[in-house]
Design a protein that fits this description.
Number of helices: 2
Number of strands: 11
CATH class: Mainly Beta
Helix content: under 10%
Strand content: 35-45%
CATH architecture: Sandwich
Order of helices and strands: EEEEEEEHHEEEE
CATH topology: Immunoglobulin-like
Length: 131
Amino acid sequence: MEVDTHNPYHIFFNMQNYSKVPIDCWCKLNPTVNDDNIELDNFYGGKSAFKLQPYGKAQGHFFLSDIVEKSSIKVENFEELPETQKTERYVYFKVEFFYNKIGSKEKYFNPIQPCFYSFHYKIVEAWCRDK
């Protein structure tokens, strides 16, 4: 995941199909805001597929503020925190990617990638251990 340099709450997501066959792929972000699980719809909720052609690439995006505001908190609340608390990990993702060959029912799952958003550095960081 990458952060837009003009808007630190606009997150880009890259996908690539390295195979010779077209695939349907799904992504489930599984976001948590202050330990509250946030339910998402469509692609980022793992409920709708994106088609990728052989060796194709695509870039998706979402706004962190849309996810945070599904909880009882606003992004501005995090901005108002003292600088020492901005390094805390308030927004987590356990990103799941899964895919199948178009027309097949057999799905393949990539390893779950945990990461969090740093309000101090305005970046998404991979996290190698569970919280």
